[in-house]
Amino acid sequence: MPEFSCLPPLSLYIHIPWCVRKCPYCDFNSHAVKHEIPESQYIDCLLNDLEQQLPGIWGRRLSSIFIGGGTPSLFSAEGIHRLLSGIRARMQTVATMEITLEANPGTFEQEKFNGFYEAGINRLSIGIQSFDSDKLKRLGRIHDGREAIQAIETARKAGFENINLDLMFALPEQTIEQGLADLQTAIQLQPSHISWYQLTIEPNTYFYTHPPVTPDDELSFECQLQGQALLASAGYAQYEISAYARNGQQCKHNLNYWEFGDYLAIGAGAHGKISRADDQSIHRYWQVRKPEDYMDATLRTAGKEILSEKDRVFEFMLNALRLKQGFDLELFENHTGLSRKLIEADCATAIDSGLLTQQGNRLHATDRGYLFLNELINMFS
User: Fold this and answer.
1) What are the counts of helices (DSSP H) followed by strands (DSSP E) for the chain?
2) Domain annotation covers residue 300
3) Rounded CA gap, 131 and 107, in Å?
4) What is the pLDDT along the chain (381 residues), one digit of tens a residue?
5) CB of 204 closer than 8 Å to CB of 27
6) Domain coverage including residue 165
7) Rounded Cα–Cα distance for residues 262 and 221 (Å)
8) What CATH code is carried by the domain that includes residue 140?
9) CA pair distance 327, 379, nearest whole angstrom
């Protein structure tokens, strides 16, 4: 029978689903604002949602909070303050808790940065995507290149030292030179963290039914290689497929995901995962997607499941093998409640194939394994 020697760290994800306009590449649970956002009512529902989940995690401390969307910076600073105060009144937290808010570079959101900082947000993740105004228009973004740069400057003036910039490459009709110019601009602004990833065309998006002309795989891969070298030379160490950090400024919240930690989820469409010591089980659950349904519901959980041993192994590998440094076998046992013996044969096969390497108790993808990560992960399915 699986057994946890200790429960993993606990995070909280909060989903705020509204945005000014749905971007053509976005497949997240986001909804364009048609009328005034029901901010106060939604915050009441978030806190009620959290209260309903407290019995399952009683006595555990929050290590991080991530407020994502949508565009959470559409909420007022006063609303974010009330939300965070309500969470602290209901839960214990670690002293150095990381609290991230996703924000758009638009001038309207920038005016709130001081208030967000005073409310307790200590990490800002700004959705830049590109500094090229023409490319931003193609992506359906509502800011331009000037506002993108101004957003970082405004955030610093507000007091934020821990800033992530979200940036994409392989944009419609983008050359390698243009992609690297975007990245160079981001580096010159010296954020603590850069999330740099390729534009992908996902189902249920406008781009899926009206596909733009994007660089081919060879050009995209070359841009990725040159960009990674540029980031490394500027002191941004890659620690996950699309995550690069300076001076140990890795995102604690996302690291908890990738290390198969636990996370509460509140908000429309949010997904959570909780380990339980009483019956040694791991539960995954998801909330009602539509904001109006979420606010009307008495019980907001739309579905849940208990992970089997096979699910635990696959989901752990799906996350942990994304990390550049891989994982320790002790972490596998602590966060899955399973014996390392369960994965010995599959690990040996992956090592023999040249996709995985082991040094002591630590396993990580080889350079080839990182290129063929899906193939490596599927060895554990």
Assistant:
1) 16, 17
2) no
3) 15
4) 456 668 999 999 999 999 988 888 988 899 888 889 999 999 999 999 999 999 999 999 999 999 999 999 999 999 999 999 999 999 999 989 999 999 988 767 778 999 999 999 999 999 999 999 999 999 989 888 999 999 999 999 999 999 999 999 999 999 999 999 999 999 999 999 999 999 999 999 999 999 999 999 999 999 999 999 999 999 999 999 999 999 889 999 999 999 999 999 999 999 999 999 888 999 999 999 999 999 997 779 999 999 999 999 999 999 999 999 999 999 999 999 999 999 999 999 999 999 999 999 999 999 999 999 999 999 999
5) yes
6) 10-255
7) 33
8) 3.20.20.70
9) 16
Q: Is position 269 within any domain?
A: no
Q: Which residues are CB-contacts of 11 (< 8 A; sequence separation ≥ 6)? A: 62, 63, 64, 65, 66, 253, 256, 257, 261, 262, 263, 264
Give the side-chain half-sphere CA count within 13 A for 207: 18
Of all helices (H) and strands (E), which one includes residue 240? Answer: strand 237-240
pTM of the model: 0.95
* Residue 363 maps to a domain: yes
Render 210-224 in DSSP notation, one character per residue.
S------HHHHHHHH
Residue whose pair of structure tokens reads 């596998």 in the numeric block? 332
Instruction: Give 295-340 as a DSSP string.
Output: HH-SS-EEEEEEPPHHHHHHHHHHHHTTSTT-EEHHHHHHHH---G
Which residues have CB under 8 Å from 33's CB, separation 6+?
Answer: 18, 19, 20, 74
Locus of tokens 């090229």: 132
CA distance 43 to 46: 5
Q: What kind and span of H or E run contains 357?
A: strand 356-359
The backbone torsions φ and ψ at residue 164, rounded to the nearest 5 degrees and listed phi first, read: -105, 140
* Domain total in the chain: 2
180: its two tokens: 């690297």
- C-alpha separations of 170 from 167, 177, 178, 196, 227 in Å: 11, 11, 9, 11, 12
